[in-house]
Known about the structure:
CATH architecture of the largest domain: 3-Layer(aba) Sandwich
Radius of gyration: 23 Å
Shape: elongated
Helix content: 25-40%
Amino acid sequence: MKITLTNEKIKAKKFTKILFSEKNATNRFVIKNEQEILEIKTVKKEKMNRRKWIIFVRGIILEAKKNKLKNIVINWEELIKFNNLGEDLEKLFVENVELANYEFCKYKKKPKEGWSNLEEIKLIMESDKKSVFEKKIQEAQIVMEQVNRCRNLANTPGGDMTPEILVKETRKMIAGTGIKIQVLDEKQIKKNRMGGVLAVGSGSQYKPRFIILEYKNGGKTEKPIVLVGKGVTFDSGGIDTKPHPYALEMMMDMSGGSAVIGTIVALAKLKVKKNIVALIPAVENMPSGTSFRPGDIVEMMDGTMVEIGHTDAEGRLILADALTLAKKYKPSRVIDVATLTGAAVIALGERANAIFTNNDELAKLVERTAEKVGDFVWRLPLWEEYESDIKGNFGEISNINTKAKSGYGSPTTAATFLKHFAKDYKKEWMHIDIAPRMTAVYDENLTKGATGTPIRMLVELLTKI
């Protein structure tokens, strides 16, 4: 979308002016002074806050799209006249208009009148603010390009997004960024003894791939930050097949992998002075005569013998091997991102991602960053006591809770499983379960489907730490 800054009054009839009102808002067009004016109702000034403002900004775009507008004009000072909005509103505005303007139309026929997407916003503001705002627009649109490309990847049906296709799309995304790519095929995955990746991918006709991305723009001796993303391109549940309708959105089970790809590309395009590595194990989890089974014992890359309690607890298996591979980079910090557990959705609803770490300082920093960008998180426990819950009966550990009743504490026991493979990173590891925010909530003024979480939060975080 084109965002233009001006200090001139807009009179052209092709533009629709947006006015805001706390009372008597019409939510329809009226003709005034030869201009079309769309009036949108807001909450009272004293009740507005940053979270409500985000939804309000998205609502402007949705209202414009509903009325099939292509060009609108907004008075910036009027838009930010509310209390308690916080800082960096320029960037927040751009991010959220791009989020709300997104549509996944790949499989639809284009209407005669064209798509409903907004094409241009003109912001009226004082001229002395334009230079700062223009820089913010540029930075935010770099990030949002990757967020929306991530949404495209996640929304693509599983039959059209196999591990090999994800590799091809990744190559397209990193083109011209200076990011180096290495892709391990099944033979190389076997050579690296990645038992978790091999087990999960064993039932599919589409063989697993392991994507390694490296961006080096920090000091030569600077230890990299390693991002790990779950890349299950479709998750049927395996032998323990998901009942209807729980598999309907499982083409999005690679949302963590696509988010990690989007994050490293955005950082590269922003030319952030960091060394970043992204690891994305890409597999399809399908039932067949060659699938791994409940009760199997799988030897992981680090030698741990894992008892398979459930084949739908597959994401933690591929992440475990990726966390082991991360050791070779001697990272300063490791963050893994995954649509890991439906139980995180039960615990938190669809309003916040779950985070797990034993680093209190990192947890607080992530919480503040998430609140700033509107990609909210909530910390869940990762206590030592949970380690006994995943002790195996025949293997060393199990990929599900073997001691408590089924489903009890599943987000934490899944994180505890990952902690076993991240123990060398001590307090420099965080797990983000993005299952709660994988898809848009009905009332947050976003189109149905993937949200692109948590790219905006990660870019902001990794730019600062």
